[in-house]
Write a structure and sequence with these properties.
The structure holds 2 protein chains of 2 kinds. Chain A is built from 23 helices and no strands. By secondary structure, chain A is mostly helical. The longest helix of chain B has 27 residues. The chains are: A mainly alpha, B mainly alpha.
């Protein structure tokens, strides 16, 4: 048998000479993949979303729907992403086109969702970078909320998109983009893997230290009591179950192409399900840790201010940039330590997730155009960075971020994941093929139960989340945001992403594109088997 | 902390962190294939 990678044969060029077949970039080993995949899954949502979702949906009882959601939807969908990415070896557009040519548009929808998210996600990391310094001097004084919206972000009174830049956000954001693009340009092994190996252990050490410090504060047990006291009646509430599925779904980064892309860099004989279980449980482990740290700190704040935990608990930007500064101010000498640990953790967790979002976009662009990784990084990464720097470090960036984030997650991600599940399971009936692929080299075998979870349970949950969200936002609007603003940057953006995805899928793949010269899974396997045979013969 | 809160905290830690330990041990018992 000849080695396909060395044969010099032309491929898929319709008879025209094209580039030599080549093997896809890959992670050096299982450890590299695991650290990168965990780095992707563990992001800002683990730290600032999970604790409040758990607290407000049954407290200690929430662990029941949470584990059920992890095992019946989170991990099964993670396996689906791994199977698609690994078998069809590409970012979403190429992998899904290899699965079926009409699937390419879904792949571009996923890619564009990653693109929109990374544009605004970066600015939150830039804020966190500034807050590391603010924590030391407690720059916010006695009014962290006024400081955030006033002295720091200079938030405009009108809800609109304007281009009055805030230099305190602009410069750190620019430096962050240059830093991340430099990482991306060096590739999977030297860039993504090395960054993950640096940031993830540091994140673990810093966050564990943060939790230990938080647990020593007066009133920590009050916060933990509030978080873990079970409200068993919540288990009969449909909304609580949806909250659990939503948390697992958004937290694990499944269904919108990140894990498809990362799995495409795994070697052909990889243990996909074994790795998936580790990534799924590692992500949830970090959420439990975040619950301990955040609620211990909130318990301290509640005790110090004489308020119940219910009055100080919160999530998202409010928790990180308003509640935590209050905690830091009240914690005396420990405050700056707590602040630096918390905001550096946000920065590290954010950067590894930002890298994974950007990798989907860069890989999709590189594969379709056939240009080098470096060129793809600086062209599409540069465009992304410019969009981020132009739109978000401005006096109107906060409202734009709020609306975009809500719609791209609840309408975009849920919608595309639902569609992908339904088409793969029911229209194309590819689950048996993907099941066999998962089982080929994996330690944990999947069967009909996995197929039922992916084809029935996950779509039902996603459909429920999606319909509920659409009805709510369509009837009540989004918060207090003006309807025209929501119409343009919420609904309009969501629809534009779908239209653009269809347009991109209609552009033909040029002869130099990766789909024509990067080896398929079967060809890569043939290469490996050939090399093993040769080595055996020589020894 | 109330007894029920302590029990649920321990259950959450044991199931999730235990799940991580069990899945990691299971994975590394299966050698990586080249």
């Amino acid at each position: 048998m000849s080695d396909p990678a060395q044969s010099g044969a032309t491929v898929a060029g319709g008879g025209r000479a094209t580039r030599k077949p080549q093997r896809r970039e890959s992670f050096a080993g299982r450890g590299a993949f695991l650290i990168a995949a965990i780095g992707s899954a563990v992001g800002l949502g683990n730290i600032w979303r999970f604790p409040y979702v758990a607290y407000s949906n049954g407290g200690g009882a929430f662990i029941v729907p949470y584990l059920v959601a992890l095992l019946t939807a989170g991990i099964p969908l993670l396996f689906l992403d791994y199977a698609v990415g690994h078998k069809f070896r590409g970012s979403p557009p190429m992998a899904l086109r290899r699965l079926h040519k009409r699937m390419e548009a879904i792949g571009w929808w996923q890619t564009l969702i990653c693109w929109v998210i990374v544009i605004y996600y970066a600015v939150i990391i830039a804020w966190a970078i500034r807050y590391v310094g603010f924590s030391v001097t407690k720059t916010w004084g006695h009014d962290p909320e006024g400081f955030l919206t006033g002295s720091f972000l200079h938030v405009a009174s009108n809800v609109d998109v304007e281009f009055h830049f805030v230099s305190g956000v602009f410069w750190p954001l620019l430096l962050l983009w240059l830093f991340v693009l430099a990482i991306m340009a060096t590739g999977v092994e030297k860039g993504i893997t090395r960054a993950s190996w640096i940031f993830m252990p540091l994140l673990a050490v810093m966050f564990i230290t943060l939790v230990i410090v938080a647990l020593t504060l007066d009133g920590a047990s009050v916060g933990l009591n509030a978080l873990f006291t079970p409200s068993w009646g919540a288990l009969g509430n449909y909304q609580v179950w949806m909250a659990a599925y939503g948390q697992i779904f958004f937290s694990l980064s499944v269904g919108f192409g990140i894990m498809v892309t990362y799995a495409s860099y795994l070697k052909p004989k990889s243990d996909l399900t074994g790795s998936g279980l580790v990534v799924g449980f590692a992500n949830s482990s970090f959420e439990i840790l975040a619950g301990l740290g955040v609620f211990a700190a909130l318990g301290f704040m509640a005790t110090a201010s004489g308020k119940p935990v219910s009055e100080v608990a919160g999530s998202g930007i409010g928790l990180a940039f308003i509640a935590f500064p209050q905690i830091i101010s009240q914690a005396g000498a420990v405050g700056p330590v707590l602040g630096v640990l918390f905001f550096v953790s946000l920065v590290f967790a954010g950067i590894t997730s930002m890298i994974s979002l950007l990798e989907v976009v860069i890989a999709a662009f590189r594969e379709k155009t056939g240009i080098s990784r470096k060129a793809a990084t600086w062209i599409i990464g540069g465009v992304t960075a410019i969009a981020s720097i132009v739109l978000f470090p401005t006096t109107t960036g906060l409202n734009l971020l709020d609306v975009t984030d809500h719609f791209i997650n609840n309408i975009g991600i849920v919608g595309v994941a639902l569609l992908a599940c339904l088409v793969i399971s029911w229209a194309l009936r590819k689950l048996p093929v993907l099941r066999d692929h998962l089982n080929e080299y994996s330690s944990f075998q999947v069967n009909k139960v996995w197929m039922a979870l992916v084809s029935v349970v996950a779509p039902l949950v996603l459909l429920s989340l999606w319909i509920t969200e659409i009805i709510t936002v369509a009837s009540k609007g989004y918060g207090e945001m003006p309807r025209n603003f929501v119409g343009i940057f919420g609904w309009g953006m969501s629809i534009l992403v779908v239209v653009l995805a269809i347009v991109l899928s209609l552009i033909p793949w040029p002869h130099r594109s990766a789909i024509h010269h990067e080896l398929t899974h079967e060809e890569e396997l043939a290469c490996e088997n050939f090399q093993e045979t040769e080595e055996g013969a020589l020894s | 902390m109330s007894t029920s809160a302590i029990i649920m905290m321990i259950i959450a830690m044991v199931t999730v962190w235990g799940g991580l330990a069990a899945s990691a041990i299971s994975l590394f018992r299966h050698p990586e294939q080249d």
